[in-house]
Write a sequence for this structure.
């Protein structure tokens, strides 16, 4: 089986862009037509609303983008109904040929990390194609995920530099001795974990998360981890521009994927919007993002 | 309503010990009697086995310890059946008067952190009394959790120094300027976030996770965060002794809780063990831990 990195790069080439649609279920922001008749907060209504909303989004963007990024926190807040919808969203996305990045920021030590890897990177209800993880617990906490990626042809995105202002608090701290920021020490481990997992594309399946809001850091990390695919959140609603996201790309337009959530799925102004107008809004928002990102990154011409 | 810290300290006083039973569902380690007749891996069997196992453990330890710590990773690995069992375990524990520390090592930025706080610290299917979180994303990622704790009388445990060898990789890194380890910079933020959330016990509901395997770090962090309750994992199976766990306590025997998982629930040698012998094993293991920890920490005499 192809590595995750190769599948992602292939899909970026085929779709002609590196854009990811983020799926953040927030029922309070969804259009009335999707909630109508099931306003009571219940497991069944949570499951139905969140599933239906995302199936509609997936149908609208499946031919446009290479992957989607469901955010686990927003599913978990709806309890069991939310997790049933998560299963549904992930399966619906994969059945439409979209790669799934489960955004869970998971991690723990040894056998517990293995359990998270089993949950999201093997044949379970929640099986995705890749998972975001946090690095604070150290290299031995990342190793079980890397092993699962090698075994099941899955991918990992380790948070290096997040898109929020608070990313400066610890991630940017210069270390004694080198004077270099903490995130560079973590980048070295990501490179090392990925070096035996290179696919035909030249990229490894151990990637990194680097926010679009800090282009200088993006440029530095791009250079430090030439074989890592960078997942770039923070574009759009969080203030990252296409130009700043472009800092995480190689000159050939590959090496990174850019995610937008609210700007795509909640970019309409009136919750009374019709189903048809909602579909148009999601599609237009996606096409606008694709246009901006492709222009900024000189992505390759789509294969017909 | 009492703060989380006050409820935990009260319960430690009433039970006469600061021991926490960790709940790590691992069906492959469970006794045959709990799996018999439902060996097929299915949502229903996962739900039933994991729920029944933990209800039996809870019935066995509810009169002995102040709290339990279900590990979300091990529940998530069983998919929807696992999450149904998580809901069951949490409700079963709380209905037996046990406080629940949801061990999820969650975190993310801004509104996503709020969604995790909603999921585990408000009235949802997964409502616990407290949650473990990771600090890498910075102070503004911790703030929404602290707000939820203040609003709903819940608690937080921020991972500072984990019990694994890899905790040295980043957590111990001395920072330029101060030369002090990264975890001390995070400890300062934990103290600051908790300073307006002190209960009558004098402890705040913003606590920290410090592994039993590094007593020198435990002593330093105990001194740096006098009002934080420290959750101490790594006792027993991971090699932390009662003496090293004691480094995280105040001299009056308060200020920390110690967790053991495998050593309590999987401390038997033969999977053919009877139900009665399993209950005896769990109870004996818990009593032995209590005895060791109480001796090492000079915990207060139980209130009759």
């Amino acid at each position: 089986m192809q590595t995750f990195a190769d599948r992602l790069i292939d899909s970026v080439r085929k779709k002609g862009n590196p854009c990811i649609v983020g799926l953040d279920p927030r029922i309070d922001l969804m259009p009335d037509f999707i909630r109508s008749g099931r306003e009571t907060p219940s497991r069944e209504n949570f499951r139905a609303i969140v599933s239906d909303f995302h199936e509609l989004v997936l149908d609208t963007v499946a031919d446009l983008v290479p992957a989607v990024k469901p955010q686990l926190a927003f599913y978990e807040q709806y309890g069991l109904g939310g997790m049933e919808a998560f299963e549904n969203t992930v399966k619906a996305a994969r059945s439409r040929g979209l790669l799934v990045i489960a955004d869970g920021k998971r991690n723990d030590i040894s056998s517990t990390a293995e359990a998270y890897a089993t949950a999201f990177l093997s044949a379970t209800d929640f099986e995705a194609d890749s998972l975001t993880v946090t690095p604070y617990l150290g290299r031995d906490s990342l190793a079980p995920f890397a092993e699962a990626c090698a075994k099941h042809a899955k991918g990992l995105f380790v948070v290096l530099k997040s898109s929020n202002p608070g990313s400066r608090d610890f991630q940017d701290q210069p270390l004694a001795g080198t004077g270099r920021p903490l995130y560079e020490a973590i980048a070295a481990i990501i490179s090392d974990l990925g070096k035996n997992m290179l696919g035909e594309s030249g990229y490894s399946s151990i990637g990194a998360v680097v926010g679009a809001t800090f282009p200088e850091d993006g440029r530095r990390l791009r250079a430090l981890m030439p074989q890592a695919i960078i997942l770039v959140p923070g574009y759009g609603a969080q203030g990252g521009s296409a130009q700043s996201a472009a800092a995480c790309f190689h000159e050939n337009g590959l090496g990174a994927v850019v995610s937008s959530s609210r700007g795509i799925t909640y970019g309409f102004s009136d919750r009374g919007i019709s189903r048809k107008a909602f579909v148009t809004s999601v599609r237009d928002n996606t096409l606008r993002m694709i246009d901006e990102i492709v222009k900024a990154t000189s992505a390759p011409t789509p294969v017909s």
About this structure: Strands of chain A lie at 19-23, 67-70, 99-106, 130-133, 155-161, 204-210, 228-232, 256-260.
